[in-house]
Amino acid sequence: MRRRGSLLAATLTVLLVAGGCTRNRPAPPPSPSPITAPHFRPGADGAGDPYFPKYGNGGYDVAGYDLDLRYDPKTGKLGGRATITATATQDLSRFDFDLAHLKASKVTVDGAAATSRATGNELIVTPAAGIPNGRKFTVVVEYGGTPDQLENKSLGNGGWIRTGDGGIALGQPESASTWYPVNDHPSDKATFTLAMTVPDGLEAISNGVPGPRRSQDGWTTWRWTESSPMASYLSTVVIGQYRITTSTHDGKPMIIAVPDSMPATSPAARSLARTGEITDYLASIFGPYPFDANGGVVVTDDRIGYALENQSRPVYGAPFFTGAEPNEGVVAHEIAHQWFGDSVSLSRWQDIWLNEGFATYAEWLWSEQSGKQTAQELFDKAYASFDWKNTPGDPGAARIFGDAVYQRGGMVVHALRKAIGDDAFFRLLKTWTSEHRNGNVDTAQFIAAAEKISGKNLDGFFAAWLNGTTRPPVNRNDPQDTSGEGAGDHSPASSPVARRSPLGATE
Predict the structure, then answer these.
(1) Which candidate, 117, 113, 114, 86, places its Cα nearest to that of 104?
(2) Which of 98, 149, 289, 390 makes an SS bond possible with 184, Cβ 3.0 to 4.6 Å?
(3) CATH number for the domain formed by residue range(s) 39-237
């Protein structure tokens, strides 16, 4: 059997020479997987909001805006540099910013030159190389021009307003894109830093904590920092001749500004002087005040007949203060927004009742706290006179500032209080503002929170109060029962809450 062994040996020799034995050879490197390889594509040119699909953009999440700008009231020209830090949320080949009326002259991404082009109100940026999903990047945009407002036939104009001695950046649901490149949708909140240089003798008031000012060659640079994430429409700058009062409230800077032409004893100045007191009361209900600064600004431009809850620094139109007495209701409304709308922000504009309903209810609570009409009395008047065909749960894009969002929204809040009882209701408010601080929310989340804290199934309640087109039943005598015969027989009366002109409600 020796021959058989010789044949096996010969066969093994042939295999070894031919390379048939690969036991000790390294494996070849694997081919790139199509699953893990980057697939770069453009970010969406809108955030996909059901009401305003082209507001904002997709493909990235902004962490912060750092603006260094210069404004000349004589020419109306604004220019400077925006440094934007962000993180890619997809493999990006290019991305958009919202930027209206102004032109970019130079754009870099992580220090490398990028190409850019403008299409309508979009600035389209193409970096030198694709940005992988999850990577942080920095964009620097040098830009300038003559800022202006955005025209929205249904909602009015918002954005940059040139005034006789300066300018005002203000508006909802969009305004930021008229003065800096931005992802202009509340779902992408970011920190905000502004250095605004204006001629000596003018003030430039913005959001957050004031920084050191510097004057040089006839120009003064004002610095502001908002360190909490902020929805872009809440950013503001007011430039002109203002009398600024700086104090400290609860260890935080309180900045109150009124026009130089407005006496310190005017109803406007006296109204804003109550800001700290109103904040303290609302904090007892909503939880700790959420920001590092507080205050407010009064403006007298005829084109601003509304008030807006700009983060840490609400802006109030002068028409709110035409009476002889202070208007504390509008201050309570805008300060309440610092919790409901600013700290806890919308994921989509359809749910704006979460902002305005609670701000309206804060007015009712402050009225009661001040010894005036109670929240129940104000609810009863609104309940008796309201047109229930208009709903706050899905008001439509053209009606996000309508009475259904404000007045019926306030009634939803009060009716919820009656449905679940005071203990659960006030625990809900503080839990909601604490758990969602600096975040974004929707109505479904609020309903789930209300049900969790109350232990009740509230599907029927919210279906009737948010989306029903007939008067919902309510029993004002039993806070645990919503199956009663109604709120009582009350004659119609207009609510004393401040209203936005011409759209019918404060913002």
Answers:
(1) 117
(2) 98
(3) 2.60.40.1730
344-467: CATH homologous superfamily? Neutral Protease Domain 2 (1.10.390.10)
Task: Give dist(CA 234, CA 212) in Å, integer.
Answer: 23
Q: Which residue type sits at 161? A: I
Burial of 134 (0-12, 13-18, 19+ CB in 10 A): exposed
Q: pLDDT digit string (tens) for 143-178?
A: 999 999 998 877 888 999 999 999 999 999 999 999
- SS percent in the chain: helix, strand, coil, step 5: 30, 30, 45
CA 273-409-237 angle, to 5 degrees, is 40
Rounded to whole angstroms, the Cα distance separating 44 from 36 reads: 22
Joined tokens for residue 234:
């809440």
Q: What is the 3-state secondary structure (H, E, C) of 303-355?
A: CCCCEECCCCCCEEEHHHHCCCCCCHHHHHHHHHCCCECCCEEECCHHHCHHH
Name the segment(s) of the chain with CATH classification 1.10.390.10. 344-467
Find all residues with CB under 8 Å of 54, minimum gap 6, and list them. Answer: 45, 46
CB 256 within 8 A of CB 273: yes
Residue found under tokens 């004031």: 210
What pairs with residue 116 in β-bridges? 125
Beta strands, E only, 408-470: 439-441
Q: Are 328 and 274 in contact (CB under 8 A)?
A: yes
Q: Where in the chain is the domain with CATH 2.60.40.1730?
A: 39-237
Which residues, at least 6 apart from 486, have a Cβ–Cβ distance to it below 8 Å? 471, 473, 474, 475
User: Which position has the token pair 């964009």?
Assistant: 139
**pLDDT, tens only, 83-142:** 999 999 999 999 999 999 999 999 999 999 999 999 999 999 999 999 999 999 999 999
CATH code 3.30.2010.30 region(s) in the chain: 241-338
Angle at 367 (CA atoms; ends 303, 479), nearest 5 degrees: 125
Give the Å distances, CA to CA, from 25 to 19, 20, 22, 314, 374: 10, 11, 5, 72, 86
The CATH code for residues 241-338 is 3.30.2010.30
